[in-house]
Amino acid sequence: MTRIITCDEITRAVADLCREANYYLGKDVRGALEGALAREVSPQGKDVLNQLLENAAIAAAEEVPICQDTGVAVVFLELGQEVQVQGGYLYDAINAGVRQGYTEGYLRKSMVYPPLDGRNTGDNTPAIIHTEIVPGDKLTITVAPKGGGSENMSAAVMLAPAAGIRGVKEFVLETVKKAGPNPCPPLIVGVGIGGNFEKCALLAKKALLRPLGEPHPLEGIAALERDLLESINCLGIGPGGFGGRITALAVHVEIFARHIASLPVAVNIQCHAARHKSITL
Amino acid sequence: MKFKYPSRGTAPMDSNPACRRGAPATEDKRIRTPLEDAVVEDLRSGDRVLVSGVIYAARDSAHKRLVELLDRGEELPVDLKGQIIYYVGPAPARPGRVIGSAGPTTSGRMDPYTPRLIAATGLKGMIGKGYRSSEVKKALVDHKAVYFAAVGGAGALIARCIKRAEVIAYPDLGPEALHLLEVEDLPVTVINDCYGGDLYTEALARYSIKEVPELPLGKDPALS
């Protein structure tokens, strides 16, 4: 049985998601910021956390973006194998939604092409689209705008398997430490372990989509997440980099099988403006 | 998990006149552009400051063009003497609004241009976020200038402090155009002062915990 979803529906949905993701900070992030405010000991750190909470309230009330860097439109698709897309090409429909959402929603356009010495494309397209074919007859679309400041502080490495969990931990800590105040802490740190060169980066990015406060289902990985968070919060960078206990709100790790010769690790740094909104059609 | 919090007040002191570097924010200082040397001399890393007056918004591409003009010995589209540049690429304004969200962008990308601009124009301040290079920090000391950070990600809040915004050059750059902004009580924090004070370094000295708890490196089913 095939189910038909039209390109128009998809475009409308993507446009709405672009606006919503940029205007409304998720409840999980707001909750985490409030929790951080209670635990932060640094007065300057508290001041930053208060400003971020106030900022989220203003953005929602005025329907303006939480952050002026409304990012690259990263779009995740979970496309049911029984879905048939009609009325055009799926990726054109997604890009039309991004164009509409960013233009009509007064969001900043940040895409430049060609990458060396290029010009602003003017409508924030092209989106970066990741498609996964899944069982069923539904299409789930997640729009996750990703800012440049935090993305620039991200990193990947191909460790030797002998480096083990200690090597993973050292790389994550080194990446966060090196980033310092640049990616607008408090952070959400997405870590991908395993797979290969490109897979670990995608795992790290997907780790950022998990709601804050939800640990990895495997206890060993959940423990690694807790340990990494504690170590990161010992660095002292603090909110805004002004010093304090809260450098990260959460660490999310995602894993995949790896080659016997490699232990790939990627760290995708996310600022507090952790934006992602989903819809299932 | 057990670990020790260091006692407060561990920030290093030295003979530097910036003796309260890294101290918790107390009372806000108010400044108005253009800045005289005396105003800059009164600012210390860690101070919370409210900025009012005209400031200029410029980022990557606008900086490149400004420095190219200096290289060719041509006049800049704006006199930067005593002025502040804000590293921002604002979101578009909704109808009836002055500007869209307008938080700081990462300052380090402007490092290659900043010392030149300070020396050639008399620029006195920059607002952004994140680390500066040692060359920039030296230029701040040599020319009595100051680097502030605004709160990254607080773009909607900061937009409320902006009362007027005009594109004054490079409209082809879109969000990267050179803007004139009139601001009122824009909240910023002094990161690098004209005495070599550096809040980011002082903050780490004050708040980092050296005894990072040891990981329980137990068996990890997914990694072994």
Automatic annotation (TrEMBL), chain A:
- GO MF terms on file? 4 iron, 4 sulfur cluster binding; L(+)-tartrate dehydratase activity; metal ion binding
The record's InterPro entries line, in alphabetical order, gives: Class-I_Fumarase/Tartrate_DH, Fe-S_hydro-lyase_TtdA-typ_cat
- The EC number of this protein is 4.2.1.32
Lineage top rank: taxon: Bacteria
Q: Where is the Fe-S hydro-lyase tartrate dehydratase alpha-type catalytic domain?
A: 12-279
Q: Which UniProt keywords apply?
A: 4Fe-4S, Iron, Iron-sulfur, Lyase, Metal-binding
Member of which family? Answer: Belongs to the class-I fumarase family.
Q: What is this protein called?
A: L(+)-tartrate dehydratase subunit alpha
Q: Which organism is it from?
A: Neomoorella thermoacetica (Clostridium thermoaceticum)
From TrEMBL, chain B:
Q: Could you tell me the EC number(s) of this protein?
A: 4.2.1.2
Name used for this protein in its record = Fumarate hydratase class I, anaerobic
Which SUPFAM superfamilies does the record associate with it? FumA C-terminal domain-like (SSF117457)
Q: Which Pfam families match?
A: Fumerase_C
Q: In what residue span(s) does the Fe-S hydro-lyase tartrate dehydratase beta-type catalytic domain sit?
A: 32-202
User: Keyword Hydrolase: yes or no?
Assistant: no
Provide any one GO MF term from the record: fumarate hydratase activity
The UniProt similarity line reads: Belongs to the class-I fumarase family.
Keywords from the named record: Lyase
